[in-house]
Design goal:
- The complex is a heterodimer.
- Chain A has helices at about 15-20, 30-45, 45-55, 65-70, 80-95, 95-100, 110-120, 130-135, 140-155, 160-170, 180-200, 220-225, 225-240, 255-260, 265-280, 290-305, 315-325, 345-350, 355-365, 390-400, 405-410, 425-440, 450-455, and strands at about 5, 5-10, 215, 245, 285, 310-315, 340, 370, 420-425, 445.
- By secondary structure, chain A is of the alpha/beta class.
- In chain A, strand 5 (about 285), helix 16 and strand 6 (about 310-315) form a beta-alpha-beta unit.
- Classes of the chains: A alpha/beta, B mainly alpha.
- Chains A and B meet through helix 2, helix 3, helix 5, helix 8 and helix 11 of A and helix 1, helix 3, helix 6, helix 7 and helix 10 of B.
Chain lengths: ~450, ~270
């Protein structure tokens, strides 16, 4: 368990790991100077960061509205407190008041200790943006976290998990590191599963030229959430779509958003555009992945180095359209269990995807119960921004971060008989919630939304 | 000393206040809106965007929704602050006779002016005291506070206390007339000596300190709110749903048999 002066930290990438994502780590004795240089660059670039640094009044409203603070009661996990970790440096070096009256405004000289604090606490932020929704001024601590993770990346301080994913993506085009034969094998297996369980022949076209639709699944669906991938295939097959999965980009996620919004994130965007161009598709449909959907919907327009010729929509913007227009025959009775919905943060607060989830879900299940505080006001699952660290100390933190979510699920009562369903249409939410529903003994099974739709389809 | 406070410092204050704010706004404007980070649900028209701004500015909607304990102090304090500033301007300009324009007699107007000034002054005092108490009493708020956060409150409390004292004990107060004469002198660049009233001089000096500090402090949240909401709340229109090559107008297609295997995989 890595620890720095009492602060528990995520295992970080070794020098070798960093080289694989093309980063040269900065030696400790140069980190402070380099960090200031990078901070100066970022503050001149990101207005959202500057306004967050200069307009916070420390009213503390965000404290009780952040699940990481509610779970840990660590003041550095109060959004305003988290931003203070860099605000004190920002003030000291980049504002007149901090230079001349440092003590009064809480300014502090930079040091290695401060940088280690950054690494600790900016990787305890879920980037869920609930603080931005509740803040009277809309100050977005997620923007602060993103800027700081970028700086940490440039300093060579990245969690091993994130660095590994970045490398796997570059090698194979997906996070799990599955090469094309592995993808095809898995899909063949899933096709057989569909045949066995639902009695229909459903193909999984891979790299099929001249397809109309490019479907981008989360690679976690190949191994962890097979019913999500099966549900999507059944949906596309059911409506008679000419669709395909690109083997070079079988990944809805984009970890660039989470640690390196420049080279890494842009690289993944270009990979997608290459695949779409090569396969001659007409529309790109995104699978169940929260941060990935935000990265696709909101960031591709500003990151793509070429004109984007294809409309990009989310799977559930499409399913809800076909549900709403009465074009799917669904039998909710096939999902005859109480269901509640966890709104993935990136859908509800960043992508405007909340009502459509409900349209689809209500058509697929007979007993849907809303959580109290939902849609853009929902609380994060505690795994947001992929802080899904497995080592024991960090795992304990994940349990604390998911406490609020557990309370919310319990309140709905769907797990009272032990047969509830917690619908969480996001791969990171699923990865976090699979173990967390056990830790908190919630009596629910975690499922994707398209899983439920696939099951509810009525075949001729 | 009173010459400096009354006839020199005000000009220094105005210059620092104005240039300071311009400097800060310039810094914000130099940085870009790099990515589209608008918050959803997305406003569908600029009227809806204006609605968000209005709700936050007029009612402190978010504060009310997510922290009523803060709203009880913050909203009345800010409303009173706005009223007091407005009251100073019209009260001094019209010598307290501003309400004659809505049909009151001159005497009644002056009384009304005094009454409103007193009430809002007291509300503001109570609000500030409550916010100070809150900052000390709530663990999470205390822990993120720095000395400057308390000093702002104390400075405002000082200004309001002196103002209220002059209002409540007119023997120590200042009539509108001499105040207007003095301010007119400042504005027309022919400064006259500041009225010889120690409380007024203290009140006026503290306000100048506040204005000098303003551009270099969190008081910039007045502008920060607009600068930040300009980034966070903007119109976003989603692309139309509907998949190419899919036609369900004649009903769901009969499930087609798949000739061999489940996977088509060109180019393996």
């Amino acid at each position: 368990m890595p620890e720095y002066k009492g602060m528990k930290q995520a295992v970080r990438a070794s020098e070798e790991d960093l080289r694989k994502i093309h980063m040269i780590p900065v030696p400790d004795d140069q980190k402070a100077d380099e960090a200031l240089k990078y901070l100066d660059e970022m503050r001149k670039k990101f207005r959202s960061f500057v306004t967050a640094m200069e307009s916070c009044v420390k009213c503390g409203l965000c404290a009780e509205n952040c699940h990481t603070y509610l779970g840990t009661r660590d003041p550095n996990n109060i959004p305003a407190g988290r931003a203070d970790l860099v605000r004190k440096i920002y003030r000291r070096y980049f504002t007149p008041e901090g230079r001349w009256f440092g003590k009064l405004v809480g300014a502090e000289d930079i040091s290695l200790d401060v940088i280690e604090e950054w690494y600790t606490y900016f990787y305890q932020c879920n980037e869920c943006r609930r603080c931005a929704v509740v803040c009277p001024f809309g100050l977005d601590t997620c923007e602060v976290t993103m800027v700081m993770r970028q700086i940490l990346h440039w300093l060579g301080m990245v969690p091993k998990l994130h660095a590994h994913v970045g490398h796997a993506m570059e090698l194979t085009g997906n996070h799990t590191g599955l090469p094309k034969p592995g993808l095809v094998d898995t899909l063949e297996f899933l096709s057989e599963e569909i045949k066995d369980e639902f009695g229909v022949d459903v193909p999984f076209p891979v790299d099929k030229p001249d397809s109309d639709i490019l479907y981008i699944p989360s690679s976690a669906d190949f191994l962890l959430n097979p019913y999500t991938l099966m549900g999507a295939a059944m949906f596309f097959h059911y409506i008679g779509a000419n669709w395909t999965i690109p083997s070079t980009m079988a990944e809805a996620g984009n970890f660039g958003l989470l640690f390196d919004q420049q080279a890494t994130q842009r690289g993944n965007v270009m990979r997608l555009l290459d695949a779409a161009e090569k396969l001659g598709v007409k529309k790109i449909v995104w699978g169940e992945c929260g941060h990935g959907w935000r990265a696709a919907k909101m960031y591709i327009p500003t990151l793509a180095d070429r004109p984007v010729r294809w409309p990009i929509t989310h799977l559930h913007d499409e399913t809800s359209y076909y549900v709403q227009t009465g074009q799917l025959k669904l039998d909710p009775g096939k999902n005859n269990r109480p269901v509640t919905l966890h709104d993935p943060c990136n859908y509800g607060r960043a992508c405007g995807l909340a009502e459509n989830l409900r349209i689809t879900l209500n058509a697929c299940v007979p007993d849907f119960r809303e959580m109290t505080l939902n849609r853009e006001k929902n609380f994060c699952c505690g795994g947001g921004s992929a802080i899904l660290f497995d080592d024991p100390e960090m795992y304990q933190l994940r349990i604390k971060f998911s406490q609020k979510k557990a309370d919310q699920v319990r309140e709905t009562g769907v797990g009272n008989n032990g047969d509830g369903v917690l619908c969480a249409p996001c791969s990171i939410c699923k990865a976090q919630l699979y173990p967390m529903v056990e830790e908190h003994k919630l009596g629910v099974e975690v499922k994707g939304l398209i899983d439920l739709l696939g099951r509810a389809l009525v075949w001729n | 000393m009173t010459f400096f406070i009354g006839q020199v410092l005000p000009y220094v204050t105005v210059v620092i206040f104005t240039l300071g704010i311009l400097y800060r706004l310039w810094r914000w404007a130099m940085a870009r809106i790099v990515h589209n980070i608008t918050l959803s649900p997305f406003p569908q028209s600029n009227a809806q965007v204006a609605g968000i701004y209005a709700g936050e500015i007029v009612l402190f909607r978010n504060v009310f929704l997510f922290d009523k304990g803060l709203w009880i102090g913050a909203w009345p304090m800010h409303v009173a602050l706005g009223s007091v500033i407005g009251g100073h301007v019209v009260g001094i300009y019209f010598l307290g006779k501003q309400f004659t324009y809505i049909g009151l007699s001159e005497h009644l107007s002056e009384q009304m002016s005094a009454l409103l000034g007193t009430v809002f002054g007291l509300i503001m005092f109570a609000g500030l005291l409550y916010l100070l108490y809150r900052r000390l009493a709530i663990d999470s708020v205390r822990k993120i506070s720095v000395p400057g956060d308390y000093l702002h409150l104390l400075l405002l409390l000082g200004i309001v206390s002196v103002g209220n004292f002059m209002r409540l004990f007119p023997a120590y107060g200042l009539e509108y007339g001499p105040a207007r004469e003095y301010i007119t002198g400042l504005v027309t660049l022919h400064p006259v000596p500041i009225p010889d009233n120690p409380l007024f001089i203290i009140h006026f000096l503290l306000v100048q300190v506040l204005l000098i500090v303003f551009p270099f402090s969190k008081l910039m949240h007045l502008f920060g709110m607009f600068a930040n909401r300009w980034i966070m709340n903007r119109v976003y229109l989603d692309p139309a749903p509907g998949l190419p090559g899919v036609d369900l107008s004649k009903g769901v297609p009969v499930v087609r048999a798949v000739s061999e295997g489940g996977v088509t995989s060109a180019g393996v």
